Amino acid sequence: MEAWIIHLFIFCLLPILTFSAPSDTLSATESLKDGETIVSVGGSFELGFFSPGNSSNWYLGIWYKKISAGTVVWVANSDTPFNGSAGVLKFSVQKTLVLVDEANTTIWSANSAKSATAPVAQLLDTGNLVLRDYNDPETFLWQSFDYPCNTILPGMKYGVNLVTGLNRFLTSWKSDQDPSPGIYTNKLDTTGIPQFLLKKGSAVQFRSGLWNGLRFTGMPNLKPNPIYTYGFVFNEEEIYYHYQLINSTISTRLTLSPSGNLQRFTWIDRIQDWSLYLTAQIDDCDRYAVCGAYGSCNINNSPSCGCLEGFTPKSPLDWEMADWSHGCVRKTPLDCGDGEGFMKYSGIKLPDTQHSLYDKTMNLKECEQVCLKNCNCTAYASLDIRGEGSGCILWLGELIDTREFSDAGQDIYIRMAASELVTYRSLKGNTKVKIIILSVLAVGITLIGLCMILHVYKRKMKKKKKQKLTKRLANMLHTRQHDHNEESQDGNLELPLFSFSTIADATNNFSAANKLGKGGFGPVYKGKLSEGQEIGVKRLSKCTRQGIKEFKNEVLCISKLQHRNLVKLLGCCIEGQERLLIYEYMPNKSLDFFIFDEQQSIILDWPKRFHIISGIARGLLYLHQDSRLRIIHRDLKASNVLLDYELNPKISDFGIARSFGGDESEANTRRVVGTYGYMSPEYAIDGVFSVKSDVFSFGVLVLEIVSGKKNRGFSHPDHNLNLLGHAWRLFKEGKPFELMHTSMKNNNTSNMSEVLRSVHVALLCVQQSPEDRPNMSTVVLMLSSDDITLPRPKQPGFFTERHILCMASSSSQHEISSSNRLSFSLEAR
Hints:
Elements: E1 5-9, E2 25-27, E3 38-39, E4 45-50, E5 59-64, E6 72-75, E7 86-91, E8 97-100, E9 106-109, E10 119-123, E11 129-133, E12 136-143, E13 151-152, E14 158-161, E15 170-175, E16 178-189, E17 195-200, E18 203-210, E19 228-234, E20 238-245, E21 252-256, E22 262-268, E23 273-279, E24 295-297, E25 305-307, E26 311-313, H1 316-320, E27 328-330, E28 341-349, E29 356-359, H2 364-373, E30 377-381, E31 392-396, E32 402-404, E33 410-416, H3 418-427, H4 431-443, H5 445-477, H6 500-506, E34 515-518, E35 523-528, E36 534-539, H7 546-558, E37 569-575, E38 578-584, H8 592-595, H9 606-626, E39 630-632, E40 641-643, E41 649-651, E42 658-660, E43 666-668, E44 671-672, H10 681-686, E45 688-690, H11 691-707, H12 723-732, H13 742-745, H14 752-765, H15 776-784, H16 801-809, E46 815-816
Helix pairs in contact: 9-11, 9-15, 11-14
């Protein structure tokens, strides 16, 4: 079929051409005469070619026709201009609009997923260029409103279509005279709670904040007005901002300037020019994260940056030099213990929501309870502040980019240590109490001084007492002279010491009937203390020397850890040659007892398995990021995950764990310890371990939980791959559900998306390169939200068993040991 051509000849008379307009519609059976343009039916907008300023480049664009300034609102070929005196806009053989230059080279096309029998291009009076079928005028096959440039017009959807993946965002011009894409973008980010991020390249410059039902929390100047109405749609299919004119005779536009300012203009007929109505960025406090983590900006203060109450500058010297980028830290660290609660802050631009979770159905009280139960939750707030408030948003990790507003903002509740809450509540007492306190301060300065001296003295005595107890325990742990310089972390041990007779009585003198199992450390017994508390007791085998190392390492590591998904160490016993570790009792044994047993595995339906997966992930996140020490477990496997009465997972066996300082990210060792099938390639081969080593082990463990099969020893009639290779093969073939354990396949139809996401996340965790694997904070977010788009995983490391043996034997500089027993048995260095 012969293509119909529309010639739009360009004359260099004006930067933007204006011609007579025969029609607002163009069909495949029509063409326009030379020098004509397409004009909207109401005459508000015009489509044609223009050359800005003194540029020699030409573009196809849409501009206001009734406004003499000829403001361009959309450019088709902004990144592919053409030179010459003529351009052609035509219907191609495929019946879609294409733009070609004088050499007949296509430089732009209105790509449409659907074709039209009788194509029609029409410029609507909204400024929207649409492509539709003549026989179906209501359906748009393509529209310019889906591909904005630097301007948002009334009626446009500014955001994401979750069904098609289309993201409508703004891109600045390079300059006022150059419409090619500039360095600034303003795009809706849906990683956590949706928010618009204005970026310069990849660096965030400004954040709108989340939509709270009335406005974006970072844009207090977005208020009801006589010019336009606005709203925000947030459902399972679409998330977008939009606005509509109240009076159609008024012209207004939202634009991103070449200098990175998000601005709204209105046209004033009296002065025949655009007038700036508002700018999203109000002042210096709108610079992204200007005060760092846990810092808050107040433009009325000098300096404008300050720490939130309960926090102090992380780097006081830099803070005094007006370098606030390091932010603030807690005066009293959190330990997820009793007494922790929340401090209310009002008039706040809510923090960055890229690492957040939300629930639209919870009320504020339920939100508080959920946050309090999650040791990784640092703050919560209402999602919608209309009425009495509704919905819940939870922040995981540091709070970044907050500021204070005098007449806007909203309430946020930040998690604080028990001691800080006591101080806060006392300072928030009634006015009379404050007056009395001030009076006492004025007349009792001498008494206060004496109290301070007494307080300092008591603290010194308490510290001496604590150091004495610590030294005693440290001396007991360092039973061999060469161990004295190997650990420097025993300065804050607070671990109860049990007598041997107490534990012997509790375990019926370590009877065979109380024996739960045996690992590399030694036998494990069930016990019951005199007050009725059930315990698990690890008894160091007297015949093993390396168990002393692991005993000491476990005491030093786990005594500092408190998390619902880590097994709790209740104390230890050191008498003569006896070395005992006393734990909370786990009645349901270890995870491998269930998932690798055909009868027991039936107990674990998919919701229980996913609950276990999520709990292990949260435990690892605490070890890697939120604990006092950054801990790398190095031997995460099914037998080292214990289950309590409610099948909640608890990570155990820290005998070969290693702790890192704040600036450390990886280390290496001459002796590789752990368990084959769970070890990452870089650790097994080169002895290099990091938090990504645990991520690899976690990925293996997730695949084992889903399939009920062990990675090592896995066999399949169709290939010789191990479980990782088998899962990778099914994923590439689009059959990941075949990995599921047979007990779940017939009754798991409602959780298929959760299963698929778990397998997908697991394959991301077991990728060959550590750099490709996500960290545990990302893993927790990916598991907890269906809204996050997951990247496609690369080939896993160690996806055949023979590959492991070959790679391991090729490394002569590492001695590799492994253990598949109940507990650790290998030396940690």
